[in-house]
Design goal:
The chain is of the alpha/beta class. Helices cover 63% and strands 8% of the residues. A 6-stranded mixed β-sheet has the order 1-5-6-4-3-2. The protein has a two-stranded antiparallel ribbon with strand order 7-8. Strand 3, helix 2 and strand 4 form a beta-alpha-beta unit. Helix 10 crosses helix 11 and helix 17 runs antiparallel to helix 18.
């Protein structure tokens, strides 16, 4: 997701193209109109309806931050989703003579013809793209020339929100996809000196494109910092920045207005220092896993558990935290809990021999010898070099105990 987003940004920083004519669509299309969106799909009316529902939920999420008067939307926001990437590429080629690896918001001089264009894929990839570019479309409908750090920073800040189909709502979830990149930038004084917070607040499209690898993580980081900082004076800056955006202003005028009104209460040098300290304090999934492994190695099981649980809040699709949580539960003689964690690690693709051995040991400790024998024999079969000796030792003990 991060790489495709950067590739798209390199080609068009605000991900918005000025077009003059929409070519005739060759495929059969189906449309569905909700309160604020008109969605076109080449798949089915049901697909268009489901996307419209998701977009309405996204709009509610956006407006929790922007507080726009939705009655000012004279026309529904247009969204076109293709079921096949090839058809998406063909459409963009006819329209702008280019293709994109991600969604794109296409802007016309007539706002009623502007549209967000994308393509279907796995929900874990589709939702972040819909949220990201949907935010740009929504913001542009009210403020066509918002400061770039707000536009891209907010879009990235919100894109990992989780959708609940039962309540048809999105709940915010931290997006740390750019955290490691930003930490590396901040650690390099030479690189970071190329784009201070003062520069970021007034950056132009051309400047952002020229320094895209710095701009993108910096824009996300600034928004995340201002929103999540425990200091209310920092939170206030973000809310005031959003409040002073003006619909009819240029990018330069809006950027200066935000700087002069929302940031007037702080010293930018001090804010830069607070920003860097805050970002340095954040931990990525990999950071938390490494910390948890070290804590487990020191037999600090309670602290290790907390680290792995925090890691799972960022990524629940990786087997490592589940495996170590299983080890911790085993150490605490909570064998059923350990069994559950091991099974989840197995579902997520952990080494088969390793998890069979761990389950065998767990069943042995729980005195469930038949199950222990089954898993230990399988571990030995899968990787004799690593587990034959250890498995046979336990198997011999089982024979004695039974």
């Amino acid at each position: 997701m991060k790489s495709s987003r950067l590739i798209a940004a390199v080609c068009g920083v605000v991900l918005c193209f000025c077009a003059t004519q929409v070519p005739c669509q060759q495929l059969d299309t189906f449309s569905w109109s909700s309160k604020h969106y008109r969605v076109t799909s080449d798949s089915s009316v049901t697909a268009a309806m489901e996307i419209a529902r998701k977009l309405e939920a996204a709009l509610k999420l956006y407006n929790e931050y922007l507080h726009f008067d939705l009655d000012r939307l004279a026309l529904p926001l247009r969204v076109r989703i293709f079921s096949d990437k090839k058809d998406y590429d063909s459409y963009l080629n006819r329209l702008i003579s280019e293709t994109r690896s991600d969604f794109v918001y296409i802007s016309y001089s007539d706002p009623g013809r502007s549209e967000l264009v994308g393509f279907q894929r796995e929900e874990s990839d589709f939702n972040p793209s819909l949220l990201h570019y949907g935010f740009i479309q929504f913001l542009s409908a009210f403020v066509p020339a918002a400061p770039l750090w707000i536009e891209e920073g907010m879009a990235t800040f919100l894109e990992y929100a989780q959708y609940d189909p039962m309540t048809e709502s999105f709940s915010w979830k931290a997006n740390y996809a750019w955290l490691e990149s930003l930490k590396n930038l901040l650690a390099s004084e030479e690189i970071m000196g190329e784009l201070t917070l003062g520069d970021l607040l007034l950056i132009t499209k051309e400047q952002a494109q020229a320094r895209i690898e710095i701009f993108y993580p910096s824009a996300w980081g600034l928004v995340h910092f201002l929103h999540q900082s425990p200091e209310r004076k920092h939170n206030r800056i973000l809310w005031e920045s959003l409040a002073v955006l003006a619909e009819g202003s240029t990018l330069g005028a809006n950027s200066r207005n935000v700087l002069e009104k929302a940031f007037r209460w702080v010293d930018l040098v001090e804010l830069q220092s607070s920003f860097e300290s805050y970002i340095a304090s954040l931990m990525t999934f990999n950071d938390l896993v490494r910390l948890g492994v070290d804590q487990y190695g020191m037999e600090d099981f309670s602290t290790a558990r907390s680290s792995f649980e925090e890691a799972l809040k960022l990524r629940s699709d990786n087997y490592i935290p589940y495996y170590y949580l299983g080890l911790i539960a085993y150490q605490e003689k909570a064998y059923e809990v350990a069994h559950s964690f091991y099974n989840r690690a197995q579902e997520l693709g952990i080494d088969a021999a390793l998890i069979h051995y761990a389950l065998g040991v767990n069943f042995f400790a729980d005195q469930r010898y038949d199950q222990a024998r089954e898993y230990l024999l399988k571990a030995k079969e899968l990787d004799a070099d690593s587990y034959r000796e250890k498995a046979e030792s336990l198997l011999q003990r089982i024979e004695v105990m039974q």
